[in-house]
Description:
Elements: H1 5-36, H2 38-59, H3 63-86, E1 108-109, E2 112-113, H4 115-128, H5 131-137, H6 161-177, H7 179-182, E3 185-189, H8 196-209, E4 214-218, H9 219-231, H10 236-248, E5 251-257, H11 264-279, E6 283-288, H12 292-310, E7 312-315
Parallel strand pairs: 3-6, 3-7, 4-5, 5-6
Antiparallel strand pairs: 1-2
Amino acid sequence: MALSNSQYEALMRIYNQRQFQNKREQxxxxxxxxxxxxxxxxxxxxxxxxxAQAGRLLLxxxxxxxxxxxxxxxxxxxxxxxxxxxNGYPADYMEMKYRCPDCRxxxxxxxxxxxxxxxxxxxxxxxxxxxxxxxxxxxFDTLSMEYYDRExxxxxxGMTVYEYMSMVIAECRAFVENxxxxxxxxxxxxxxxxxxxxxxxxxARELIRKCFSVVYLTATDMxxxxxxxxxxxxxxxxARDRAxxxxxxxLLIIDDLGxxxxxxxxxxxxxxxxxxxLNRKKGTIISTNLALNxxxxxxxxxxxxxxMSQYKVLPLLGEDxxxxxxxxxx
Length: 330
């Protein structure tokens, strides 16, 4: 899940290109203003001269003289802004513009990878996996309702499977629509083959298209990554990066919870992951074949209670669709 050296270098080249483009665009804006409003160029030169003089006076120990030059430069800056605004330009028109103001298009902020860097990192990792190919097959556009029973009434819901699953799908679409405001979480439960993974993929595809960062992991893979970050002998920074995706991505999908080896470590790490992501207001989707009582038995009441109180629980109904619809997810 970590970038190779060549992938990292490719990302840094993107940032270098952005910085170069930012400078070119700034130079073009400055040239445009100087051409249309020559007074701004004269004021800019005067401001630069005053600030240089303030620096020289400060080196000589004349702090009073330096302060006077700075005050004069500040007055000139106000005049410059007035000229800009009078001619229809915003006050910051000549300043550098960044695609990411947080890192100023360097990829790093306070010595750590910026959010924009992590977003591109996740996109590269998706490109090298098969997830995008899967999402091209499993999405809302390819979802079909023809395999759901429209006749038999389910005893628990009082609805046909078709009616109930139509309601569930509407909930999933609403989850996508409201994600930028709510960052909600879903627990999909149900037997093997009833569509938990398919619906997770439907949501993942739509959110990726909306430029949210989505990380899909089986429960086994997730616990391996968390274990590696704590106990593994691989590169520490790489291990931390892998674990940080789990906590920091906009949406984390944990598929097949309960199929992994369950022990005190996995139970504690599941609680940590669920709790930390809720505190950070990040969305999570968990799918499991376990009934809620089994989930509590396996992962403790502490974990289950946190999920039940904060997640939208969506039990899925229906037969194993993999036997009636080729290509349908479990």
